[in-house]
Structure formats: C-alpha cells, structure tokens
Amino acid sequence: MSRSDAVNRRVVLAARPRGAPTPQDFRLEEVAIPKPGEGQVLLRTLYLSLDPYMRNVMNEVPPVYAPSVALGAPMVGGTVSRVVASRHPRLREGDLVLGGAGWQDYALSDGQELFPLGEMARPSMALGVLGMPGFTAYVAMADIGQPAAGETVVVAAATGPVGAVAGQLARLRGARVVGIAGGADKCRHAVEELGFDVCLDRKEPRFAERLAAACPKGIDVYFENVGGEVFEAVLPLLNVGARVPVVGLIAHYNDRTPPPGPNLLPSLMKSVLEKRIRVQGMVILDHYGDRFDAFRRDMGEWVAGGKVTLREDMVEGLENAPTALMGMLEGRNFGKLVVHVADS
Amino acid sequence: MSRSDAVNRRVVLAARPRGAPTPQDFRLEEVAIPKPGEGQVLLRTLYLSLDPYMRNVMNEVPPVYAPSVALGAPMVGGTVSRVVASRHPRLREGDLVLGGAGWQDYALSDGQELFPLGEMARPSMALGVLGMPGFTAYVAMADIGQPAAGETVVVAAATGPVGAVAGQLARLRGARVVGIAGGADKCRHAVEELGFDVCLDRKEPRFAERLAAACPKGIDVYFENVGGEVFEAVLPLLNVGARVPVVGLIAHYNDRTPPPGPNLLPSLMKSVLEKRIRVQGMVILDHYGDRFDAFRRDMGEWVAGGKVTLREDMVEGLENAPTALMGMLEGRNFGKLVVHVADS
Description:
Two copies of one chain form a homodimer. By secondary structure, chain A is of the alpha/beta class. The first copy, chain A, has ten helices and 15 strands. Chain A has two domains: about 5-130 and about 310-340, Alpha-Beta Complex (Quinone Oxidoreductase, Chain A, domain 1), CATH 3.90.180.10; about 130-285, Rossmann fold. In chain A, strands 3, 4, 5, 6, 7, 14 and 15 form a seven-stranded mixed β-sheet that branches. A six-stranded parallel β-sheet of chain A has the order 10-9-8-11-12-13, sandwiched between helices. A two-stranded antiparallel sheet of chain A has the order 1-2. At the A-B interface, helix 8 and strand 13 of A face helix 8 and strand 13 of B.
C-alpha cells in the first residue's frame, strides 16, 4: 500500500470491450493526489465494490439508467472512503462515508452524493448486505416479488450479493426458496449458511428437469438477476399470478447481438398472458431518495439479529480490480466481491 | 332462420387445427332441442360473440385460463340469449341474458353463469363495448396501463373491440393515443369515429420508422393485444417506466412452434430492466366477480354520453360463424365481430 500514499493510483477505461472485457481494456495510472477546493473533501478509498452493471457502463451506448464511462476516465464504482482532508462545512476529517469515488485511491467530492456511515465494525458491509446489492434485493422483493408464506421463490445467482439477500428475505416472509448457483460449494453455502431450502447447481446436467423436480408446486416468484438459460428453464414452471422482478441480466451484458433462434419472445408473452404474469424491471438508483433510510434500519436489524448474512469475496489491491471484475462476469466470485484498497 | 325453430343447430369442433383453422375443422349438426329440467332454463341464442381466444381453446393443450373444447363438442362462446322456457325459480320466459351458450341455437342453463340484461335497444352491445372486450380494455387500462394525461399510448388492433375501447379510455384520461390497424379504412375509422390522435396502417412499408415518427416522446403504455412484429417495433420506443398490459396475442394463436431467430427474449428483458418496464398479463375471467358491475355502470354512462363507441361487424347466420372466425384470425373483421343467430 505504500505507493498509494504518495500518488493517486487509478484504473481507467483504456478501450471499450467487445464481448467479454480483457486486461487491455483497463489501464492503471498514477496521477497527483488532488487538493480539495472550498466546499470539497478529499476521500481516500478503503473498499471498492465490484458489480455487474460496471460491464454495461463500459459500452459506448450506455444503459438507460447511467452514463457511459468515457475512454481514459476512471472506472466508476461504489466505495467506502475515509475523509482525509475537508474544506466542507459538515464533513470532517476521519469521517467514514459511502460514495462513488470509483476505481482510484483518492477522489474529491462536494459531499452531495456521500452517505455518512458513522463507525462500522466491518465498513465493507456498506457495499454489500447494507449497500446497493442488499437494497436492490430489498426493494425488488417488497415492491414486485411480494412472496407470500408457502409460495415457491426461485433465486438465481444464489450466493451473489443480490440473490443471497433476496433469498433470505423471501425466507423471512415464509416462502420456500430454491436457489440456483454455479458449483457444489456455492450450493452448499446457500443451504447451510443462507438457509435456502434447496440449491441447484446449474452446471450439472439436466438442469431444467432438476428445477422442475425441485419446484413441485411451480414457481410463484422468479427473482431474475441472471438471464439466459436459467430463465428459459423457469418460464414453463411459472404459476398463474407469478411475479418476475428483473434486477440484473449478467448472462447478457457481454452480448453484442441477439443470440440465435428460435425466437422465444412469443413464448414468453404467451406465458405472461395466460398465466397473468408480472415481469417488471427495477433499477435501484431510483429508490435511494425515498427508501434507503428504511432499508438501512430494517436490514441493520436483520443483520444484527443474524437473520440475514452475506459472504464477502475480498480481493486485495486496486490493481487487481480488473481481473476480479472479469472473473465476476464469468461467475468466479463467491459472495459479494469487494476490493480492499487501503486500511484506513 | 326457419329451420332453427324446429331443431337445435350447432357447430362442433370436428378436428383440431394445425396452424390456421380450415372449414374442415368445424361441423354443423342438427340435434333435438333439449328440454329444461327442474331448476333449468332453455336459452335461445340471439347473438354469438366471436373472439380470438376461441382459436386457443381449439387446441388439445388448452390455454391456462380455460379448458379445451372436446372433439365433437359445440364450440364455446359468449352469447346474448332469450329465455324461452324456464323451470328456474328466478329466471322468467322472455328474459334477456348474457351467457356462454356457445355456437348453437339453443342451450340449457342452471342460471349460475347468466347475467340478466334487462331490455336493451341493441342487445349485441352486451358482447362488445358493454361485454367481455370492453371489460378487458377497462380492467387492463385501469390496473396495468394507468395512462396519465399527456402520456403516449399505443394500441394495436385499434378498430378491434378491445383495442378500440382501450384507446378511447386512454383518451378519456387525457393521453395521446396512437392506433395501429390493418388498412386505410380502419385507420380512418380510428381517427374520425374513435377519436384516436393518429392511426398507422401496419400494412404500409417502413412501419417501425413511421411508428417512431408518430411517437416523438416515446411510448408510455403499449396495450398489447396482437403480438408479433408490432411489439418488436414498439420495444425500442418504450419509455422509462412504461407499462405493457398483455391481453391478447392474436398473431401467435396459430403458431405451432417458436418462430425462427434471432432470439429476441434477451432484448426484451434488457429493455424491461433498463427502462423499469412492467409487462403484465391479464385474463378477464378473473375479474367478473368483483369488477363487472362497476364496469357496466361506468361503461354504460360513457356509451350513453357518446364518449365511447364501438363499430359492430355483424355476420348473418350461425352457419357462417366458422368462416367469420377464420377471417378474424387474419384481421378481416372490422369492429366487434358478432353472429346474428336469431331475432328473438
């Protein structure tokens, strides 16, 4: 960590990926540490969150909900940071804040997008169970999924941060939760640590058959944060009145063109019609204003009470963020992926 | 009409269609007029409604919301009937009722599924604007579409009974309504008689471009009662927060297998996610219990006040029902398709 004391290291977007990102799409630079102007703070990044949407904002045509990262600009990302210098009227040196400093050691902020964290035993939780992924699961389950006691809820990417929290929230509402994950170790974790009723390894053969067998009463809620073949296996099992909150589609973020046929869009629409299914997208950025405080209060209680937990997959060093992001897009993370950038 | 006085003519399902139905899939039979038992009424069919769902229930694998028609059984269908003999405690000879007597001159009923109509100047309206199609438009717009003043609403099959009413209801809420119909005469009707702001002929070239030009502020509600290429043209124009009530998919009812690729399902899901779109199916059978009375009151007022109108496409004679249904599945009807079976 010693070099980052003297300079600001940052990872910039060097090239726009075609399909899966490669190491050449990122560049580690060293620049001078900026100085805060009047009303600004200088932030030092302690933890950087890595999340699937980052692949999307690397494209020239950005997703509707966020701008593209410019070529040569630092990659964006949620961070837990320490205020190391302040010319801001309310933020003080030493404050721990949640913000979006991006992939760099230091950043300036005028304080508007910062959320004060107070002191936390594990500040990185503000990027996971108590942050954006947990908040995504919380709002999508409350507003769209709405699982009732006894209903069957299927959650893909069951050990990823959004899926893990979503499944545990459905369990708290009394639903039966069937997880889907890539690998036996993840499945074991979903059942033994997260409390899912069942977890299926999507890498094992005959996935669609095994899913049908695991859902003898059909599926009432499919929490969609993956896309691709999982959804195609879920579709025929959806019950009348099923809800499908769509919060992520990691299987498709690398797509450059629509996949080959057959065209399954009409099949989906027929199911939607006949079974009165509700498919609804949600982008969590919409909800910080009115729901984040309630989320922090509720989730804080559940975490403190041991009712919701989330494994962290901690990567050491900002310079390893590109490799970690590339791995996540292939499902190689196990839990909430966080980069440990500095200690304090 | 004279023969139907002596016998009960009925149209039965002779064979299950593969793809589009053909005349050989139907058979006109003559059987004895049944006699009502204790608690039953004998109904004489005055008007028979023809609706797209009928194609679906001809399949061996029925839609989720209704059973298949058995081979050799009369085709099902909504009817306006006259009670011509009664052994029922509350229904009297001469009563006009809405029911589901199917494709036949006479039917027995125990009264449970009958809705008394009183006297109506145009009883066939109980099959259209004041019946199932109007009710479908009413509930789907109120519960899912929810158009606000100034929003852009696109309605396919704009002169069909569901689309025509849906568009007029959106206009009543102050939305700008863009219709889509097959042919210049239908488009003229949509604008001049139904009050749509614009109507596009989907048979003219460059439909997707013309739709984009007609919706300069994008699309807030797409009322889906068609499917197929119209939806594919709508998809890129949907706004953030758009709603897509799905009440019919006539373009796909003859499909035997998924159409060839590319597979547009991922594109839909990406749009749903990024634009927070709500796609939700509705089957009107779910809502008769709790909403039909309010619908009849509201729609009755709007029709009486000239605020909602619906053209009828009247076909003469039960024996012509098969040809009329086949035409409807190809878009050859113009307005609500009703078979006039008997005068009184």
